[in-house]
Amino acid sequence: MRRDIGREKWEEREKIRKRGSARARKRFGQHFLEAVWVRKLIDVIEPQPTDTLFEIGPGRGALTLPLAERAERIVAVEIDRDLAADLGGRIPPNVRVIGGDVLAVDLNALFEREIPDVRRLRVVGNLPYNIAAPILFRLLAFRRSSGRLTDATLMLQQEVADRLLAEPGSRDYGVLTILVRMHAEVARLLTLPPGAFRPAPKVTSTVVRLTFRAPLVTLIDQPGFEALVRGIFTQRRKTILNALKSLAAAAGITAADALAQAGIDPGRRPQTLEVTELAALADFFAAARK
User: Rounded to two decimals, what is the model's pTM?
Assistant: First the structure.
């Protein structure tokens, strides 16, 4: 310890130094945002004084702390126990940091315990590139079961954002596009170069906003719809007639009959089908199974 400063000041400086030099952990897909980009991200999130925010992966608190100054309260889930403990010691009273994996935490139980009175919940987060899609599916399930989520402003790998925004017939159009579009509108807000992070990733990042709404179509069987979409998109190079054959046989019907009932040309490819067409097809399968 240096003699020209007191122990308390020295200890505080050591804490700050260690936080600043903490290494990102590759196994958690960690990349920490530079301050100038934090301000830009806060601007596109547009936090309001009455907002309750659910933050996924707060890390060192680069977003958490400035958001806490502008929102009513924040519940944050952080998988890295060291980061969660460190951030938990620096947060204001309107922030609650939960250590855990967002893919394993029971979100309904969490929010019934932490903020049971809140029905309007906004999501923010910098999603790890390797598990972005599973987290998105988790949010969709939470939205369907609780009705709490109003929107989600998320930083994603650009390729994932392209899939969310893809149109029928394009290369990027697929399972993720369809399952998200059934329940949300998606808008691209901001593009970030690799240099916006430390350490710099090898990819460009994109911030998108999912605005949740009522489903495009009321489905007879949501799990059946998801199973059908996943099933035919594993065979996207085939015609829809051929891609459907095994699913149709399992349901005791023919693919040709299902397509005729849904009004779909059997020569089309799976990636050309609109969400509403897929819903009509799934509903025919659901009715046939009854």
Answer: 0.85
